[in-house]
Amino acid sequence: MTACISADSHITEPPETYIDNIDPSFRDRAPRLEHLEGVGDSFVIEGMSKPIPMGLVAAAGKPADEIRVMGVRFEEMHRGGWDPAARLDDQDRDGVVAEIIYPTVGMVLCNHPDPEFKRACFQAYNRWLEGYCGHSPARLLGIGQTALRSPSEGADDLRDIAAAGFHGAMLPGDSPYEHDYEHPDWAPLWEAAIELELPLSFHILTGQSDSLGNHRPRGPKLNSFMSIIRGCQDIMGTLVFGGVFERHPELRVVCVEADAGWVPHYMYRMDHAFDRHRHWLTGTELSRRPSEYFAENIYVTFQDDWAAFKVTDLMNVERLMWANDFPHSDSTWPWSQELLAEHTAHLSHDDRTRILQGNVTALYGLDRLVE
Description:
The longest helix is centred in the middle third of the chain and has 20 residues, at 115-134. Helix 6 (187-196) links the parallel strand 7 and strand 8 (200-203). The protein has helices at residues 16-19, 84-94, 105-109, 115-134, 151-163, 187-196, 222-225, 230-241, 244-247, 263-277, 290-297, 306-310, 336-343, 349-364, and strands at 4-10, 32-36, 40-44, 52-53, 96-102, 140-145, 168-170, 200-203, 253-256, 298-302, 320-322. The chain is an alpha/beta fold. Helix 5 runs parallel beside helix 6 (187-196) and helix 10 packs antiparallel against helix 11 (290-297). The strands form 2 sheets. The chain has an 8-stranded parallel β-sheet with strand order 1-5-6-7-8-9-10-11. A 3-stranded antiparallel β-sheet has the order 2-3-4.
């Protein structure tokens, strides 16, 4: 059995996460856990129209017919979501030696309309996460959050995130600044990330265009589930076509939890658009084909995407990173080993090792973890 590292796992923020760690001037407004009749335990956030029910965010391991959004109490959820000692037991059960840790409530907070409040929340979360990951720094590998009110402030946040011992930073899906991420104004952020060797992540559900409930899906509600990867695809296209990797070739970006089986067709589609339509559609001059930037600068995480395992030869296999998404409802926990035995059976030993541990080890500098 190959020792696996999950490139995308999550916290279940406990009730005190924000209240106990936020700047005192925001304490009265801090996100707080409340029990709502008919909804269950939920995070209530001033300035957001809907509370965040906690049912789905800790449904790992439940049979499909038992997964529900409403009516779940915090004490019923996986303790490992907020207790680091219990988390190590959860890792052992799934055959995972370490996890890259992302937020849960913090994903939704990326869409908060008040940048100052959002930054205070992210700083509070980072303080809490530092303590959580400090319990086992070799196995609990935190990703900090930044609100990016401006490129220069974002660069300062990256320095704070690196100083806290985190292994990367998660950016909001939508730029909160006056210009989108392809604009040259963002150069200080990209250069800081390169200098600090800090990968930058874009996670699903962190932008208005891809958050469930923030748009009106067509057809049955199940169809809305199909839309959640599209925001990440748009961000990756923005960075490539906008010349961000052209100008900053050492930048490393992670496309998180958006699957990977679509990547070969997306790279083909990018090249087709560039070859056929770049002279009449606006874009940035590129010295390489778009697919080359995607293949070199963008890492993608995925769980039980069997298609991704089947088409590794059509992608850069050194940019594919498996994840178990614990403790969310889409998680492969605690069946990850059985799933991987089936999905990776056709792969060479080297490619299997790259996807399950080697690529994430190289990206985040974790050589000390895997001998």
